[in-house]
Specification:
By secondary structure, the protein is α/β, with parallel strands linked by helices. It has 14 helices and 17 strands. Helix 3 runs antiparallel to helix 11, helix 4 runs parallel beside helix 11 and helix 12 runs parallel beside helix 14.
Length: 396
């Protein structure tokens, strides 16, 4: 049955993913099951999406209840759960207003447009350039692809959109040299997750915030992967003691329901007026219900504190493995967004983990990315570490 489905998938689906030969049909907490009934420990969370785990009861209840009332109405009307979700995001962030969309790429697209329009309104034509980071990743639309600092993602799609300049991560001097009268914004991830789990230095971010504020250059922080509790706080920027001008969100925002958003201060978001930006499905009743349930659970049920402890425990256990296996060259990250750099074939390791019933991800060919649900227990971490020890032993 599973083999037949996989065969049909190869036949009918666009070949845009390197899919594992497994069909997942059920999930609960940190575990998923395939069509044969085999259980897997999910340390990927749908790529940092199911922060509350699979099929969390509160999110499921919120979506199903809302589905019985209203599944869609256009944004030409006020939508009750959308207003409540926006209110919750504002109450727990630096911002004043929220724009909802459907994905991380759309959120970053909205942030790029908002930055350019804000600058256009204040300074007129010619101030549109955005400085982004080498090794970054911001999405698959043409604008977000153009803002991504990895050539491999550009292959086959040039010409890229103009107005994006790239500088090395954690290098403020290089950024200052790249800044000119055309610069309207800086776009940055505080952890380059797709790029290999590289963390921004605290002093660098503080100095960057001061520099951009002095020049009235907007600081856009891409929190698509780091937001919604992934690093132990609701938003990663909270670790740095700064306030950005715009943040983008998606992935964990709806705990699996497709939704994205940007948050900004009134003074910036006011650059958007009717007709300047829109999304038919953005913040629809189902998505907004998922957002509200996710936020309420994270904030009110102690999930953030639990995830901090889990992240510390997982990191410590990984350090112990590093002492044992010399091919582990580095462990880095924050909270439950961790990277294990290896000097062996990471893609092969990922496949070995899957054979042992554990789902992880490999990025850049040699960095194992670990993003388990924030509700992961110490017992489940122990299961992961036991499997990792077993897999790594084969590479000595």
């Amino acid at each position: 049955m599973q083999a037949e489905l996989i065969e049909k998938g190869v036949r009918y689906l666009a070949n845009t993913y390197s899919r594992n030969p497994v069909a997942i049909v059920k999930g609960e907490g940190c575990w998923v099951w395939d069509m044969t009934g085999r259980r897997y420990l999910d340390f990927l969370s749908g790529i940092a999406v199911c922060n509350l785990g699979h099929c969390h009861r509160d999110v499921v209840e919120a979506i199903t209840t809302q589905a019985g009332k209203l599944t869609h109405i256009s944004n030409l009307f006020f939508i009750e759960p959308q207003v409540k979700a926006a209110e919750a995001l504002v109450a727990h962030s630096f911002g004043d207003k929220v724009f909802f969309c459907n994905s991380g790429a759309e959120a970053n697209e909205a942030a790029i447009k908002l930055a350019r329009r804000y600058s256009w309104k204040r300074y007129g034509e010619g101030r549109y350039a955005i400085i982004a980071m080498e090794n970054s990743f911001h999405g698959r639309t043409m604008a977000t692809l153009s803002a991504t600092g990895q050539r491999k993602f550009h292959e086959g799609f040039p010409p890229m959109l103009e107005g994006f300049n790239f500088v090395p991560f954690n290098d403020l001097d290089a950024l200052k040299r790249a800044t000119d009268e055309k610069t309207c914004a800086v776009l940055i991830e505080l952890i380059q997750a797709e790029g290999g789990v590289y963390v921004a230095e605290k002093d660098y971010i503080k100095e960057l915030r001061d520099f951009t504020r002095e020049r009235d250059i907007l600081l856009i922080i891409d929190e698509v992967q780091t937001g919604i509790g992934r690093t132990g706080k609701l938003f990663c920027y909270e670790h740095y003691g700064i306030e950005p001008d715009i943040i983008s969100l998606a992935k964990g925002l709806g705990n699996g329901f497709p939704v994205g958003a940007i948050i900004a201060k009134d003074s910036i978001m006011d650059a958007f007026v009717p007709g300047t930006h829109a999304s038919t499905f953005g913040g629809n009743p189902l998505a907004s219900a998922a957002v509200l349930a996710t936020l309420n659970t994270l904030i009110n049920e102690g999930v953030l504190k639990q995830s901090q402890k889990a992240g510390e425990y997982l990191f410590g256990e990984l350090v112990n493995l590093k002492r044992k296996y010399p091919f582990i060259t580095d462990i880095r990250g924050m909270g439950l967004l961790l990277g294990v750099e290896v000097s062996v074939d990471g893609d092969a390791l990922q496949k070995e983990f899957l054979k042992e019933g554990v789902i992880i991800n490999c990025t850049k060919g040699h960095i194992l990315r670990l993003v388990p649900p924030l509700i992961v227990t110490s017992e489940e971490i122990d299961i992961f570490i036991k499997v990792a020890d077993k897999v790594f032993e084969r590479y000595l």
